[in-house]
């Protein structure tokens, strides 16, 4: 997983908060259904994707709590 180098909370930049992260070589899947991955291998891809999202969510919670906007972040995350 890429290292988080910074968090921009200025919504005037791109319309929402965003992370600045290190560049990591690897594959980029634009379609999260993984149509080009053999069906038998997809569950491993989904498991890795979920693990990465969980790690990012844990980091996000820590970073956002430092800005004092934890409640808003949780509400946005829960509303989808």
Explained architecture:
- The chain is mostly helical.
- The chain contains three helices and two strands.
- It has helices at residues 11-14, 39-67, 70-79; strands at 4-8, 18-21.
- It has a two-stranded antiparallel ribbon.
- The longest helix has 29 residues, at 39-67.
- The model has no long low-confidence stretch (mean pLDDT 78).
In brief, what are we looking at here?
With 80 residues, the protein is mainly alpha-helical. It contains 3 helices and 2 strands. 54% of the residues lie in helices and 11% in strands.
Number of strands: 2
Largest sheet: 2 strands, antiparallel
SS strand fraction: 5-15%
Report the total helices: 3
Distance between the termini: 23 Å
Class of secondary structure makeup: mainly alpha
